Amino acid sequence: MKKIFTSDKYTKGRGNFVKKIEIRCNNCSEYIFSYQKEGNGELEKLFFDLILDNLSVKNGTKLVCRKCEKLLGTRFIFGKEKRDAFKLYPGAIYWKIFVPKTTIVKRG
Ligand SMILES: [Zn+2]
After folding, report:
1. What's the pTM?
2. How far, in Å, is the centroid of ligand 1 from the Cα of 62?
C-alpha cells in the first residue's frame, strides 16, 4: 500500500506554532536561557518578554556568555511597540528544539 503523506524536511518547515527552545553559546555550548520561539524563521533577535528563565540577563545592556564571556548580542529597542530585545551577533548562539525522541539542533 502506497503512503499518501510522507514526512520530509519540508513538512517540518511548515506551520507557525510556538515552541520552547534552548539558547546556547556557539563558542562553548554553555546554556544561556530558554526562549519561547514563534514560527520557524531565523533567530536574529531575542525579545525580553519571551525569555523564560535566567531573567537577570534583562538587567544588562549586553548579552554575554557566563562561561567563556563571549559577547553574544546587544540590547536594542524594537519597533513602535518599543519592545526590549537583544540583537544577536551572527553565529553567536545556537538553539535546540525539544520534540519527543528527537533533538533538532540549528546553528546560526
Ligand atoms: Zn560561551
Report:
1. 0.74
2. 14
